[in-house]
Amino acid sequence: MHPMIMFSNINKWYGDYHALTDITAEVKPGEVVVLCGPSGSGKSTLIRTVNRLEDIQKGQILFDGQDVSGTDANLNRLRSRVGFVFQSFNLFPHLSVLENIILAPTKLRNLKGAAAREQAMQLLDRVGLAHKAGAYPAQLSGGQQQRVAIARALAMEPPVMLFDEPTSALDPEMVGEVLSVMKGLAKDGMTMMCVTHEMNFAREVADTIWFMDAGQILQKSAPEAFFNQPSHPRAQRFIADLRAH
Amino acid sequence: MFDIVSILQNNWTLFLIGQYPHGPLGGLANTLILAVLALVLAFPCGLLLALARVSPWKGLRWAATVWVYVLRGIPLLMVIFWTYFLVPLLLGHNITGFMTMLCTLVIYQSAYLCEIIRGGIQALPAGQYEASRALGFGYMRTTIWVILPQALYNTLPSLISQFISIIKETSLGYVINVQELTFAANQVNNQLLTKPFQVFLILAVIYYLLCFGLTQLAGWVERRIARKRLGSGVQTVTPGAVLATDN
Amino acid sequence: MTHDFDLAAVLRGEYAELIVKGIETTLQLALYAWLLAMTLALVLVTVRLTGNKIADRLVAAYVSYHRNVPTLVQLMMWYFGVPNLLSESTQMALANYNTEFLFSVIALGLCQAAYFCEDIRSGLRAIPGGQTEASRALGLGYIRSMRYVILPQGVRNCLPSLINHTVLLFKNTSLAMAIGVVELTYATREVENYTFRAFESYLVATVVYLVFSLLLMGGGALLARHFNKALAR
After folding, report:
1. Residue B99 maps to which CATH number?
2. Which parts of the sequence belong to the ABC transporter domain (chain A) (predicted)?
């Protein structure tokens, strides 16, 4: 079984700023990878290279065996196979919750109305928001909006889900409801890459933790090893700072 | 096209100051005097109207709103004709074209300035009003000492924008023979007869340089204000966002 | 100066006909100019969206010219100035047609196109960048993203400005009287000249302008509310 995502010697610059340095890593099917590290370490940038929201200057990224830098005609196909959840949800305000979810399946997969709606309702059920199908984003709380965003990403049945700090913009009491949806996905065997500061979530759910700082992956290890015995000195400092709270 | 240079050379005084000293002051000078006077006189009217529209007294609010909607709904030309007809009746004697145009612009612009100032007042965070009242200031004092200074400063770019509109509107004085820039250009055209394109090109360029320069000034002022007001939660009233007269 | 108010005097027979003709012409002017302006504005915005630097500068220059030169002067430029540039034979041919109306439509349309172009552009710019990212991340291509996500929101954003400028266009039709188009203001002056009843004539014209302006503003408000149902809390 080939890895779901393979990063080979990735390098990215913003002008003179070296944002990602020699990143080599892979995500196996069904694996849950959590990226953590201090701000500005390049975690978000790295996962955004997978669906080419950011482009790289050196190196190669393989998604399900295919180079993501193929021709642009395949870019949309690639993106429809990568589920992406944003920190700021980015729901479409002029469409209802249901319409947000069925937009991509009906336009890109030519799924018929009734089948699309049924699938959408199932997804809404899964995230606990079936009763909000007719509501508009402006009428929902942050936690509810993010759960709808997750359902929207799942609607295209992607083999991989990427989460870019999904709970960072939420009030504390709403973080739990989003994390429990994500835990459910992990338990069902979804391949996931998560950038998050929620360390308890990482402990519970992650198969591997990638610790990043200054554009490099400094350590990849299982959660227990990472939290209890971090090998890299920078990681040790990070864990110590966490403990201090 | 070199006619343009010769036309300018021969007629620049006409464009600039009309027939003065052999006649009344005209041309660009008169346009500017008319515009400045109109702005200076219309501003207090607009301010009073704006205060009326946000006041807690229903009758006052209603009257001001009706006035503003009527003026927004009819062309400037109609206001010119109304003024031309009514003011002599009210005063008992005839008035010059210049005075007619001045009164028209003051009346017409008072409605638009009202809306701009009102926008500025309403864009202030509610907390300003609440904090002032909490300190014990009554409605009038709050308005004068807290609300207006901020609102007027924030609407400065829009006020400059309205000034540009006023300059453009002075061109309508041509229709009632006011000696302003457009009228001067037509005089030149009537003398030359064979070069209308060149004459009107000169006219357009003069207006363009004047208004474009002022637009740049408005942009500069807006950026300065935005920098100063950064983080205070106030939205500056952008010139384009507010309804423009723009004739 | 007569002090008795006699509305019937100006609404009688041939005067009424003149006023009605004026209203017709005004509405036609407004409609054709609006169509020209909207079409051209959409073209200009599309050109600006391509990102080509030269095209962008040209459109910016177009907008700048039409917003800084008075509409009356633009009208004069078209009616007096432009024909002068054309060949003798074209000018002779044009003399047979109702060029005042034609040039009014062109001048007003081109002028308003600049305003509509800026309105549409502002409307599109007000959409948060995350919307484009989200729709592209779902796999919707450029055209589909535009069609289903960006443009619907853009329309909602620029509707108030577009309505304001449409009312402005309607009012600007009165400027055409300066070059002899028999629209409402011109007709009103004619009626005033014949009947010597300035107050009544002006009143009729004022009411007509007000009614149409308020209809436009009201219709626009309804449209905006319909589109904003989704966005309002």
Report:
1. 1.10.3720.10
2. 5-239
Q: Give residue C82's pLDDT.
A: 86
Residue C100 has pLDDT above 70, yes or no: yes
* Minimum distance, in Å, between the CA of residue C162 and any CA atom of chain B: 10
- The complex scores an ipTM of 0.85
**Residue A242: what are its φ and ψ, rounded to 5°?**
-60, -45
B218-246 per-position pLDDT tens digit: 888 888 888 876 654 445 444 444 444 55
Question: Does the beta carbon of C62 lie under 8 angstroms from any beta carbon of chain B?
Answer: no
**pLDDT for res B242:** 42
pTM above 0.80, yes or no: no
Burial of C232 (0-12, 13-18, 19+ CB in 10 A): exposed
pLDDT at C35: 97
Cα C98 to Cα C104: distance, rounded to the nearest angstrom: 10
Interface touch A51/C137, C-beta < 8 Å:
yes
What domain range includes position C49?
7-232
Interface contact C231-A138, CB threshold 8 A = yes
pLDDT exceeds cutoff 80 at C3: no
Q: What is the mean pLDDT of residues B191-206?
A: 89
CB-CB under 8 Å, C149 with A92: yes
Report, as ranges of residue numbers, the positions in chain A whose pLDDT lies below 70: 71-73, 244-245
Q: Do B74 and C217 touch (CB under 8 A)?
A: no
Query: Using an 8 Å Cβ cutoff, are B35 and B214 in contact?
Result: no
CATH number (domain holding residue C93): 1.10.3720.10
The answer for residues whose C-beta is within 8 angstroms of residue C140's C-beta and 6 or more apart is: A76, A103, A104, A107, A108, C148, C149
- Tell me the per-residue pLDDT of B134-178, one tens digit each, with 9 for 90 and over: 777 777 878 888 788 888 888 888 889 899 999 999 999 999 999
Select from C67, C74, C171 the Cβ nearest to the Cβ of B75. C171
As a whole number of angstroms, the distance between CA B228 and CA B236 comes to: 11
Q: Is C2 domain-assigned?
A: no
What does C176-192 look like in DSSP terms, one character per residue?
GGGGT---HHHHHHHHH
pLDDT of B240 reads 43
pLDDT for the residue numbered B7: 80
Burial of C78: CB neighbours in 10 Å, binned 0-12, 13-18, 19+: buried
Write out the residue range of the structural domain in which residue B33 sits: 2-232
State residue B239's pLDDT score: 42
- Chain A residues inside the 8 Å CB shell of C232: 138
Q: Which residues of B touch C64 (CB under 8 A)?
A: 208, 212
Shortest CB distance from C72 goes to which of B196, B244, B247? Answer: B247
* Domain assignment of residue B239, yes or no: no
Residue C1 domain flag: no
CA distance to partner chain C, nearest, from residue B144 (Å): 31
Candidates A45, A75, A76, partner chain C, best to mutate (most C CBs within 10 A): A76
pLDDT at position C231, please? 57
Domain count, chain C: 1
- Closest listed residue to residue A199, CA positions, set A224, A181, A220, A174: A224
CA dist C201 and C191 (Å) reads 7
The single residue listed with the structure tokens 């078209």 is C78
In a domain, B120, yes or no: yes
Binding-face residues of A in 53-82 toward C, CB within 8 A = 53, 76-82
Side-by-side strand order, sheet with A82-85: A82-85, A160-164, A191-195, A32-36, A208-213, A216-221
- For residue C73, the chain B residues in CB contact (below 8 A) are 171, 182, 200, 203-204, 207
Query: What's the pLDDT at C81?
Result: 87
Query: For residue A78, what is the nearest residue in chain C, using CA coordinates?
Result: C139
> How many residues does the structure list for chain B?
247
With beta carbons under 8 A apart, name residues in chain A contacting C141: 76
Number of domains in chain B: 1
